[in-house]
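User: Let's play a game. I give you a shape written as tokens, and you guess the letters that built it. Ready? Here's round one.
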């Protein structure tokens, strides 16, 4: 079913002819003047400018505001997943709710100052009786994803031989022009995403629109003055490698605004909370704040990792997709085990790898290790970061579990050194999961001081302690399908299968 066009609000007093519009006191103004006026009103009233855009209050948003107040066309330059397109689309809220256009024109002609040949002819023939339509703000925004096959005809227009034949016009008549998407956005906002992907000769075609504010098509001597706010987005040139923004075009784009990733995990968690689909029709699924921050730390460590191609960036979509997969895994466990409530476990994070491997580009060393191995390492580094921030330090005196070991982890390491092991799974009932962790002496004493009030939170804190000891090379961990086993490091290393033996897909038989 085709999408319905937004209904333009009308009242009994809405002028529907040029004469009525002129009598109402309407005066033409440019789209940049309109945006500037509405922006100043929002700034004066303290109304939020870009609801839902988080982490840019002192950086990107002031840059956008200054560009709009100056009447600049601008470009947002940044890596993937930095809300560039979302900001551009939010500019629609700075337009008037509706504006009058001369009915029957392709270029949204102002009824009192038409720019197209068709509009001028209609006004000359009908005068004050020329009909007026009202265009909503949503209809005044258009965008184009730049691809190498985009043509000048797509953007600006070309001669339409069918129109010439049907209306019996010569190719010298301006009314045979079929206008492209840019002139059809006259009196509105036009956005081009991924600008470097436009071929250089197409970029040249934008020169006149940005500087002289007019439109030239083919050999027609007529110039059509367009009223537009032109905005762009692009990834840094060293990432796209498919093209670049030619220097004369960059010179004509008045402002270049750099975007960035969230400055800390707390803001990133707020973005994920806003964007991720976590409110499911399953009772009892709970995501503690510490787990939300842990999910964000995966992206943070990926942005710092030498195994990840930093020029491509690590999108905020990594955390959003990971959070949705985590909720799905908890939903699956709730339905399978009947547990209520259902809290996350650290072994659930193994099910988040599909959200990471497809969105993180590796450098050569990372590709050699494999996307899944690198993703597991990133998860481990994120857990280690949280462990180091919240848990007692793993002292150097803590060895392989001997009598001389000291510190809060000594009893635990000694227990593993005696040949004991713990096997955890995201499919266990909570009672079995808790009982497995409770076998480790002293583990729940430590978790009780660090976890929350609920048993589920203390169990998660206990599992993080085990993973922290593994990340500090005090315990070995083996991943086997959906199970994670923690064992004593030295003995387990002796049992490690040789390279090429028993190391199936998904980390079977591997030690992380």
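Assistant: Ready! My guess for every position:
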């Amino acid at each position: 079913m085709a999408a319905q066009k937004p209904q333009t609000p009308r009242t009994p007093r809405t002028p529907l002819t040029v004469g009525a519009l002129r009598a109402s006191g309407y005066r033409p103004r440019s789209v940049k003047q309109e945006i500037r006026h509405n922006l100043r009103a929002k700034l004066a009233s303290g109304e939020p400018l870009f609801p839902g855009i988080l982490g840019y209050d002192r950086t990107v948003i002031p840059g956008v505001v200054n560009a709009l107040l100056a009447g600049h066309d601008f470009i947002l330059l940044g890596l993937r997943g930095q809300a560039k397109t979302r900001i551009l689309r939010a500019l629609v809220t700075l337009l008037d709710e509706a504006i009058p256009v001369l009915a029957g024109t392709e270029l949204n002609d102002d009824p009192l100052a038409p720019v197209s040949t068709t509009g001028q002819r209609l006004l000359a023939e009908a005068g004050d009786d020329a009909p007026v339509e009202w265009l909503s703000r949503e209809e005044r925004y258009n965008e184009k994803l730049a691809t190498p096959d985009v043509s000048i005809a797509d953007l600006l227009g070309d001669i339409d031989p069918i129109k010439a034949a049907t209306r019996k016009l010569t190719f010298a008549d301006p009314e045979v022009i079929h206008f492209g998407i840019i002139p059809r956005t006259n009196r509105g906002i036009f956005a081009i995403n991924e600008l470097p992907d436009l071929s250089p000769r197409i970029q040249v075609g934008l020169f006149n629109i940005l500087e002289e504010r007019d439109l030239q098509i083919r050999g027609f001597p007529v110039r059509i003055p367009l009223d537009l706010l032109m905005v762009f987005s692009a990834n840094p040139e060293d990432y796209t490698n498919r093209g670049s923004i030619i220097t004369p075009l960059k010179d004509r784009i008045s402002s270049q605004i750099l975007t960035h990733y969230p400055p800390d995990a707390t803001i990133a968690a707020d973005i994920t909370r806003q964007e991720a689909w976590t409110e499911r029709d399953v009772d009892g699924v709970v995501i503690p704040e510490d787990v939300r921050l842990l999910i964000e730390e995966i992206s943070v460590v990926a942005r710092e990792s030498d195994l990840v191609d930093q020029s491509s960036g690590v999108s905020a979509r990594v955390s959003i997709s990971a959070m949705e997969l985590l909720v799905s895994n908890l939903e699956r466990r709730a339905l399978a085990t009947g547990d209520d409530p259902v809290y996350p476990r650290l072994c659930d994070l193994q099910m988040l790898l599909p959200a990471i491997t497809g969105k993180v580009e590796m450098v050569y060393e990372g590709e050699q290790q494999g996307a899944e191995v690198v993703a597991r390492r990133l998860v481990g580094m994120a857990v280690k970061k949280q462990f180091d921030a919240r848990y007692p330090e793993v002292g150097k005196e803590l060895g392989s579990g001997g009598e001389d070991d000291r510190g809060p982890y000594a009893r635990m390491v000694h227990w593993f050194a005696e040949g004991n092991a713990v096997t955890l799974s995201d499919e266990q009932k909570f009672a079995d999961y808790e009982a497995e962790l409770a076998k480790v002496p002293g583990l729940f004493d430590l978790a009780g001081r660090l976890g929350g009030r609920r048993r589920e939170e203390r169990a998660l804190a206990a599992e993080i302690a085990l993973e922290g000891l593994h990340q500090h090379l005090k315990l070995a961990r083996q991943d086997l399908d959906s199970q994670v086993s923690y064992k004593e490091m030295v003995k387990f290393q002796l049992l490690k299968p040789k390279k090429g033996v028993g190391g199936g897909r998904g980390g079977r038989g591997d030690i992380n």
